[in-house]
Amino acid sequence: MTEISEQRSGVGDSPAPLPARADPIRVLLVDDYEIYRHGLRMILQLEDDIVVAGQTANAHDAVRTAVELRPDVVVLDIYLPDGSGIAVCREITQRLPHTRVLMLSASEDDTDLVEAIKAGATGYLLKDIAPDQLADSIRATALGQPQVSPALAPTLMGELSAVVRGAPPRVGVPVADLTDREREVLGLVARGWSNRKVAAELFIAENTVKNHVRNILDKLHLGSRTEAAMYAVRGGLIADPALDCAEPGQPSSTARRS
User: Fold this and answer.
1) For 119, which of 19, 26, 90, 149 could close a Cys bridge (C-beta 3.0–4.6 Å)?
2) pLDDT for res 159
3) Which residues is 245 bridged to in the sheet?
4) pLDDT in the model for residue 13
5) Does the pLDDT of residue 171 top 50, yes or no?
6) Same domain, yes or no, for 11 and 113?
7) pTM higher than 0.85, yes or no?
8) Which domain does 74 fall in, by range?
9) Could you report the per-residue pLDDT of 184-234, keeping only the tens digit for each?
10) How many CB atoms lie within 10 A of CB 10?
């Protein structure tokens, strides 16, 4: 269900270092949790220069409502009940080139971050962001200034560095120094799988996968999943990332261990 309104914000006198606008920033909130949307709305209503123009809970309504309202900024969750927030981001930025998208997600998966940026998102923030920082990020997003949570900045810089250099990953310790489980995780990551898919394939928690990926990058002295994938191919862990890429729940050559 879509809720649309045009309500000016209430009181609030937080400093705004960014250039002033003649009109308030019109924001569309997209998140499937009503209580979270309500909280965001309450926070943003305290800002004099930000208006919550509408809110919706799913991908279908998000695109339709964005086209109807033409907001300055869409604050968008990456996981929606009827589709991907990344797909929504791509469609909105294609249909509304003057509308900026700020992803607001609980996912720290660097694949989600990179795909969101590729889809046209101006920023990607984690949901633990402070209220005043969210307002400032929305202002910056409206001006087209990229916004990334500090915890994710090294990942993004690693991806950009790999693209700019066009070089093989830094030489680290041999793949043989990884544990059996880390080799399994690396093999799946090299095929472009997200942490969620790896967790489903290996029957382990997603946080466990994140820990394995972090350990792999540390042991191999690598800066990103992209570099790890290149390392896996060059190290002979997998012959071709396009091979043996069964979806979770289907047979693959990766041994399942507890």
Assistant:
1) 90
2) 57
3) none
4) 40
5) no
6) yes
7) no
8) 2-153
9) 888 888 887 888 999 999 999 988 898 888 888 777 777 677 777 777 766
10) 11
What domain count does the chain have? 2
- Both 83 and 185 in one domain: the answer is no
Q: β-pairing, 50-56 with 73-76?
A: unpaired
Q: Tell me the per-residue pLDDT of 77-104, one tens digit each, with 9 for 90 and over.
A: 988 888 889 899 999 999 999 999 999 9
How many CB atoms sit inside 10 A of residue 176's CB?
Answer: 8
Q: What residues form DSSP beta bridges with 104?
A: 125
Q: How many residues would you count in the chain? A: 258
Would residue 160 count as lying in a domain?
A: no
Q: Distance of CA 116 to CAs 25, 119, 132, 155, Å? A: 22, 5, 23, 13
Q: Which of these three, 153, 175, 199, is where a domain ends?
A: 153
Q: Which of 119, 153, 187 is the last residue of a domain?
A: 153
Contact of 40 with 3, CB cutoff 8 Å: no
